[in-house]
Structure formats: C-alpha cells, structure tokens
Amino acid sequence: MSSTSSRFLNLFLFAFVLFHVRLSSALxxxxxxxxxxxxxxxxxxxxxxxxxxxxxxxxxxxxxxxxQPNAQKPNPQLLYRFNASAVTxxxxxxxxxxxxxxxxVTSTNNIYRPVANGSQLWRVAFGxxxxxxxxxxxxxxxxxxxxxxxxxxxxxxxxxxxADTNAGLVYTIEAATGAVVAAxxxxxxxxxxxxxxxxxxxxxxxxxxxxxxxxxxVFGKIAIDPVTGIAQNATASVVSRALPPSRGYDDFALSPxxxxxxxxxxxxxFIERVVLKTGKxxxxxxxxNSTEIAQPTSAAFGRRGNKTxxxxxxxxxxSQPVNGKIVGGQLLAIQVPKSAx
Length: 341
Hints:
Shape: globular
Order of helices and strands: HEEEEEEEEEEEEEEEEEEEEEEEEEE
Strand content: over 45%
Largest sheet: 4 strands, antiparallel
Oligomer: single chain
Low-confidence stretches: 1-21
Number of strands: 26
Helix content: under 10%
Radius of gyration: 19 Å
Distance between the termini: 41 Å
Structural class: mainly beta
C-alpha cells in the first residue's frame, strides 16, 4: 500500500471512530514517566502499596523492574532477569506479595509456539515495609499452560486466574503450590487462524471475571465463584469490541468504583474507557498514529497519592511502528477525572 493510500485509510478509520463513538470532550493529560531505548517492549505492570511500580519487559530480555513514579528523574531498578522468552502476567495477592507468569516459546516467521514445560509461576515478595529488595522464587512449572498471558487473583488471594492465550483457556491455579485446579473454556476465549493469540488480559471484580481477546477484538465477562475462581455452567458475553483501527485489545484496568474499564488498544495507540454495565465506549487518551501512547499494552491505577492516575505500559511501536517510528517502551501516567473513576 502506498503512503498516500495508507494516510487516506487512517483518516477514514479516524473519521469512522469520530462518527460511531464519542471521544472524551477533552482527552486526559498524559505524562511520560520513563522511556526505554528503542526495540524495548514493556508488557505489564503492578503498583505496590507504597506507590512504586513493578514493570515487566519481554523485549529485549524478560525482566522485571521497580520504578518510583514520583521521583524527579525516575530510574528503573532491575530486580530480576528470567531465563525464559517472556515474563507476562503479574498480580498482587496480599500486601507487597506478587506473582508473575513466565513463558518460553519458539518463533518461526513471527509464529510463536510453546515449549513443553516452558510456562512457570514465580513469586516476588517484598519483606519489610518499603523494602526495594524482594525475594524472588520459582513456585512451579505449569505443564498444562501453553503460553500464559494475563494474570489476576480472587479476592482472598489464594487462587490465581491465568489466561492461556495460545490454548484459548483460562486456568484457576493454587497460588501456594502452582497446582492447576480448573480449566475454563468458552468460544470468546479462543484465538483464530489470523491471530494465534486469544484470551489476553484478565481482572476480577466480585463474582465477575473480565477479560480481553486479541484475536476477536473483544472485551468480555463471565461469572465465577468469588472464592474459588471457578465458573460453574457460565457463558461469557461481550461488553465491547475494540474500536478501529485495531489489532485487538490488550490488557486493562478496572476503575476503583468498579463502574468502568480502561482498556489498552495498541492498534489505535489509545486508551478506551468502557462502561461495564452498558458497554459504552470513549477514547480518553492517545490518538491514532501518535507516539504519545505508542501501542499500549497494560494499565493499572496508582495507590497512595496517585489513586486518580492510570499508569500505562507500551510497546513503543516495536511490533507495529507508529507512522514508521519506533520510540521504545514507555511507562506513562494518565490523569483521570474523578467523575470517570
């Protein structure tokens, strides 16, 4: 496609978005906290009780960093480098105790295939309050899981819920041992021939598991038991579909009130706010072909003094350059109005 045709298509898609969905009357302000070098992908994040941020990278190496977002010049502190292909999901189960999933894959012509026993569960536990040197320990190999992606937990924190993006399944896992206790399947979880990655981000609110599916461009939900994390005879439903130009939703954050989700749309270089009850969507930060939010991957709300701040990680244009530009993975801060929380 010529550059002229490409620009015309992008303008057409942007006009389509303007016509079919309401953009926020004023896009939320975006501040860059840190930007890694080019060809770096920031995959996911979690916010500690003290407000510092754990950020996972998948490119160039599977690493986990600690960043102080309020520092005058934030400088990521490398906590650990995994012997794997990627560190993917991350979730907090109790104060300052986090779990992460790790995957090892092979790649041929950008087609990723799991390696037998290549999925692992690790714990990242900070000891005394405000310590910056956690104990990092492998809990278990996850032989049932092909390629883990999003990770969340039940309210009690004893059960983890992991999205297997390659198999199109959602697993319930004992946090203490890594034992898989249940596997949940649904047509809205599966990938397709065009995009071999299905269910992606997962978050729990009460008795509802919310999820994204990159292949189907879906943000959906399914009822689960709030204690066990297991779905009994439940069927998933669509809350919203990713706005164009999209190559699928990535991860997301639920608002503190539980009324809305803030979903990463990497193909559009923007964040969508989705009302959970109605599915109503609006673009609230970023815009098509802008490197301000270059291919967002995940989001999480801040803590302590940053409770109205949505922190976002990005690919920096690694897999899909933004207007031909690769700017490096980013950690961004988006100020969300209280009325939107």
